[in-house]
Amino acid sequence: MSASVRFIFFGSISACLAVVLGAFGKHALMPILSQAAMETWRTGAYYHLVHGIGLVLVGLVAERTPHPQRAIRAGWLLLAGTAIFSGSLYAIALTGMRILGAVTPVGGFCFLTGWLLLAWSVKPLRA
Fold first, then answer.
1. I want to staple 18 with a disulfide (CB 3.0 to 4.6 A). Which of 49, 59, 104, 113 is the partner?
2. What's the pTM?
């Protein structure tokens, strides 16, 4: 399986999982979590969904860019960012352990770096 197809697959599964987790939060967790914890859960699900779609975009760009390796690296960063950022928010919402928020910015940095690297991947080659 090519890297571009792999990221389209990962992104599709990630976006699906984000929808499942968002619905789980709304229907199963809302009655038991505080309003603040639910907002944390929603933020995790939102960024999870956005970056799942971003992974699909990475797969499409990787097939067409003059710098596919940059796009592929961007995809790995978006995937890592999802695990770290959204994962830490899900864990905080469920456990109330705010100390887990110390790793959340690492996921945000992965997101930012991944998007910038994706932009760099479509920069035309110099003539």
1. 49
2. 0.93
